[in-house]
Amino acid sequence: MKLIKNISKKDFARNTIITFLLMTVATIISFVLFYTPNFSPAVIAPIYILGLILIGTLTTGYLPGIIAAIISVICINFLFTYPYFQLNFTITGYPLTFIVMLSISLIISTYMTRFKKQGIALAEKEKLIAEGEKEKMRANLLRAVSHDLRTPLTSISGNASILMGGPELLDEKKKQQLYTDIYDDAMWLISLVENLLTVTRIENGTMQLTLEPELIDEVAQEALRHLNRRSAEHTVTLAVPDDLLMAKMDPQLIVQVLINLTDNAIKYTPAGSSIAVSAQRSGETVRVEVADDGPGIPDAAKEKLFEMFYTAQAKRGDGRRGLGLGLSLCRSIVEAHGGQIGVRDNNPHGTVFWFTLPASDTPSAPPQNGPAVMQKCVFSDFA
Q: Among 33, 55, 281, 373, which has the highest number of CB atoms less than 10 A from its own CB?
């Protein structure tokens, strides 16, 4: 058994401070109680024993406990045994007292050392598991990205080659279709890159939120202005019961959440479907919903929707396979805000994605003419 372990200077200083601090506290308490009328001196030893237990618990190694045991016996002998303020270890019982205290300190130190070693081993094991999961996620991400980047890049390259090779051979309708396809693929790549960058910041712990009271109506309108071109095939509405409804958020990230949720509804619903974005306050939170009247999502799929790399089997309107990052990213962003996110069935059919944000305490202005009127904006044509 090593009395002095290879510990850092910081741990050595910490052990020293804790040992002498607790011994000082035990001595002061014992000294005060010793001179209290009708106080039994038999309580002095248990006070020091309690100090030994705390030292063995809070320090590392065996040396602090041994030093504390020696200090305890010396203090009991010098301060609380007649003749006072004199050392006399010939008194019957002191060898036994020293052995008992030393045994207690060694037993506590032994168990705590083993316990701490087990804790360190467990923490290292969990760290290795976490690193393994991160490596697995990176591998899956790289594999998925390499596949999904190739498809739109090949499409862009092919369409651009056709336009550059013989534009005079193409009629105006065909040219417009090629331009549209290039634009759609480019916008899809931009969305992919933005999601990947946010996922990377979350994974590395470098995403810093700037939570400020923001108007829900303004943030939602900003998100709807950035929807993909296929939103023109749907009726997208925004309904806010109070145009001064506010929530604490990082507006850039919540815009990304709303874009992902609304784009998801557009991609998985047929042309002509209605998509409603709404928000209302409920107690200390603001609940935002994105509802569609499409075919809906099977119950079995709902449980996995927010897992990274999970993609529903439903056929997308643009025929492109998704990475399965959007909804997982939404969950990470919303939970980083202290909110919740979920999905439920719409009535009579369709899907409703919802999430909550902390409501702002900034009071809304009272209505001038009667109760608040539902503000409804219709977005039916996005460039």
A: 55
